Amino acid sequence: MSCFFCSAENVTVCADCKTQGCPDHLTLHNKGGKCMPWRVGNVEGAGRGLFASRNITAGEVVLKDWAVVEGPLPDGGDGVCIVCLGDDDVARCSKCTLPLCKSRHRGCVNQHKRECDVFVEKDDAGEVSRDNLYTIVAVIRLLWEMERDPSMRSMLEPLMDHKEQFRNDENKKQVIKFLVKRNHDEDHILRAIGILQTNGVTSHSTGGVARGHGLYPVFSITNHNCVANTRHGMKDDAFCLVAVVDIKMDAEISTCYKSSSLGSIVRRPPFRQLWNFDCTCARCSDPTELGTNASAIKCQGCTGHYLPTNSLDYAAEWRCDKCSKTLTADQAKEKTEKVQNICGKGGGSIDDLERTLYEILEHVHSRHYLAMQIKRMLMLMYGNCPTHRLDSMSKKDLKRKADLCKEYITIFNILEPGLTKWKGRVCEELARALVKLEGKNNVDVLRLVGEAGKCRRLDSQQEQA
User: Fold this and answer.
1) How far apart are CA 84 and CA 108, in angstroms?
2) CA–CA separation, 420 vs 260, rounded Å?
3) How far apart are CA 258 and CA 274, in angstroms?
4) Do 156 and 68 touch, CB atoms closer than 8 A?
5) How far is CA 103 from the centre of its chain?
6) Model confidence, pTM
7) How do 99-101 and 90-92 pair as beta strands?
8) Which of 49, 174, 184, 414 is the Cys-Cys partner for 43 at CB 3.0 to 4.6 Å?
9) What is the pLDDT along the chain (465 residues), one digit of tens a residue?
10) How far is CA 408 from CA 263, 278, 369, 401, 444, in A?
11) Helix/strand/coil percentages in the chain, nearest 5
């Protein structure tokens, strides 16, 4: 018998589900009041990972985790408190100038005092960029937490930090210099920077703008897959993983680090740049991205499309699937960037978006990720904007909306299957269009409404609000 988390042999047994855990880790199994269906195991080539300890049903909460530390992000601006990450009655601290709640009843002023003392101690905070001040807040919080709690330090010990790549980074040098002056060990600073950079995730966002990031010790073990079997979000103060498909016992539990809406040509490079690995999942290994052609570029010499000859090699040439003409990897990137620029220059009305879509389809596959992004905007705008209200739309426009919804569902059922965030909204939009087109509910509409309901029930309290 060994611990479900660390494989130690000195174990006790959970009274409710018979999971075996050591004294240090058994509480992780039912933290939050319910036994969680995961265990830690080894993944070839990826270190540790989370695995299902029993069969898991789509919609089940797989994991609840709480942040070791949270830090503010500069994108939130000076209107977001660096302690509670709220935006109600915030002003700059009179000493260190970082934004803070004015009201004392929240306790933000008292909690900030120790950090503030660090910033004003040497009178050199003005030499540090605003972004780096925010980084320093998160780093010192983590350093203090590891000093305070040996068990937490032990839990974080296996996490990768890739700290050597930050040693010569100019921004990180500024952070290191600032904290070394305050008697922190350089290796400990680098370790903290590396852990946060490699394992931290956005913990608070409003209107698509990230306000805070947190370090969640168990979630940090979860490995990436571009076609993940969970989705994540906040519920109350917990970071949750929820199964979007059924997960069989002993199957690996996965999450997605980058949006599935991006084609491999732009989705894959950040894995190496930010997390120091190259994804080799089924989608990344397939030049067609599971048949969706999400990065395919139109050949100007025939009706074919350029695809990478080896989708796992960043430098591989691209070849037309009809005439066999080739592009270099750099040329493929340039053509993709050209289409991105066309998208960026287009207007935001339905007519503008339709014109932009028509233009970019001269350069990319009809299901290229940039084309699908525009189609998503169109799908949501038809029936929901002043120029195209659902009650007054023509049959032609209603059919256009329905066709866009159906195509989106077809593609993203492949790329992001299950009870996902996008699916609830798109199923609702398609149901609305079909009711208007056919003048009544039918089996398809009822099925779509039911599917949307399943997806919406998984939305966190924050998302529903």
Assistant:
1) 7
2) 11
3) 11
4) yes
5) 33
6) 0.89
7) antiparallel
8) 49
9) 799 999 899 899 998 988 999 988 998 998 888 899 999 999 987 789 999 999 999 999 999 999 999 999 999 888 999 999 999 889 999 899 999 998 776 789 999 999 999 999 988 888 889 999 999 999 999 999 999 998 888 889 989 888 888 888 888 999 999 999 999 999 999 999 999 998 999 888 887 788 999 999 999 999 999 999 999 888 778 899 999 999 999 999 999 999 999 999 999 999 988 888 899 999 999 999 999 999 999 999 999 999 999 999 999 999 999 999 999 999 999 999 999 999 999 999 999 999 999 999 999 999 999 999 999 999 999 999 999 999 999 999 999 999 999 999 999 999 999 999 899 999 999 999 999 998 777 888 999 999 999 888 877 433 433
10) 15, 27, 11, 11, 16
11) 45, 15, 40
Sequence-separated (6 or more) residues with CB below 8 Å from residue 375:
357, 404, 407, 408
Contacts of 129 (CB under 8 A, 6+ apart): 171, 174
Structural tokens at position 137: 């807040």
Which residues are paired to 209 by β-bridges?
A: 206
One-character DSSP codes across 94-138: TTT--EEES-GGG-HHHHHHHHHHHHHSSS-GGGS-HHHHHHHHH
Residues 6+ apart with CB under 8 A from 189: 139, 143, 175, 176, 179, 180
> Tokens 């983590």 — which residue?
142
CA neighbours within 13 Å on the CB side: how many for 67? 22
Those residues with Cβ within 8 angstroms of residue 102's Cβ, 6 or more apart along the chain or in another chain: 89, 90, 91
- Contact of 51 with 252, CB cutoff 8 Å: yes
CA dist., res. 387 & res. 105, Å (int): 47
* 75 backbone dihedrals φ, ψ, rounded to 5°: -60, -25
Q: 59, 423, 382: which is closest to 260 by C-alpha?
A: 423
Of 112, 108, 79, 107, nearest to 96 by C-alpha is 112
Distance CA(125)–CA(120), nearest Å, equals 7
What token pair was written down for 97? 């100038």
Cβ–Cβ under 8 Å, residues 241 and 230 = yes
What span, in angstroms and rounded, lies between the C-alpha atoms of 390 and 224?
39
Amino acid at position 172, single letter: K
Please state, in angstroms and as integers, the Cα–Cα distance from residue 410 to each residue in 103, 185, 417, 423, following that order: 50, 53, 10, 11
